[in-house]
Amino acid sequence: MSRRRYVKDYRINEYIDEKGHVTSESEYIGGDYRFVLPTARVHGSAKRVAALGAVGWACFLVLACVEGTAMRTIYVALPFAFSALPLFLLMRSAISALRAKDGPLRHDQADSIAHTLPAAALWAMLLPGASFLGCLISSLAGAEEWDVLFLALSAVMTACGALCFAARGDFATKKR
């Protein structure tokens, strides 16, 4: 279903080339989209989101490589492991916003930036936050040792996701 989402935005033009072969090209006929805010502000917000996403990825990779008691608990490890997908989507949307020029955006680009980024930021905040709470509860309930590194870095990941989610309004788009 999602593969055919933007089919109406393109038209297929067929023609015969010099060698007699039928060649087809796609032509974008969908509407033009623009950012609601000035492009300079969007680029500034995209740089901040990309930097926060890079910090989130650094925390994720450190915690994935360091062995600790938190990653042996299923209700801590699962939300943490699934936080890689929102981090990826967050970075992809931020990079797309950075690449966007003053000119118009295609429909799929506008959706990727304006709709994917807020959802990815929300999940990049909630999943490490759930892991943080799970680790804190298991530590308070009498775990053998406190996993201080996991608590600190998952709190940093949660804060990065919250700051990205707070900037979601800067990436709004509208049809021209």
Helix content range? 55-70%
Order the strands across the largest sheet as they lie in space.
Answer: 1-2
Low-confidence stretches: none
Distance between the termini: 26 Å
Number of helices: 5
Average pLDDT for all residues: 90
Q: Please identify the structural class as seen in this structure.
A: mainly alpha
What's the overall geometry?
A: elongated
How much of the sequence is in beta strands?
A: 5-15%
| Rg measurement, Å | 21 Å
Largest sheet: 2 strands, antiparallel
Write the H/E string, N to C: EEEHHHHHE
List the helices and strands and how they pair.
Blueprint: E1 10-16, E2 22-28, E3 33-35, H1 39-65, H2 74-82, H3 84-99, H4 107-140, H5 148-166, E4 173-175
Antiparallel strand pairs: 1-2, 3-4
Describe the protein's architecture and organization.
There is one protein chain. This protein is mainly alpha-helical and 176 residues long. It has 5 helices and 4 strands. The chain has helices spanning 39-65, 74-82, 84-99, 107-140, 148-166, and strands at residues 10-16, 22-28, 33-35, 173-175. Strands 1-2 form a two-stranded antiparallel sheet. A two-stranded antiparallel sheet has the order 3-4. α1 packs antiparallel against α5 and α4 runs antiparallel to α5 (148-166). The longest helix has 34 residues, at 107-140. The chain starts with 9 loop residues before the first strand and ends with a strand. The model has no long low-confidence stretch (mean pLDDT 90).
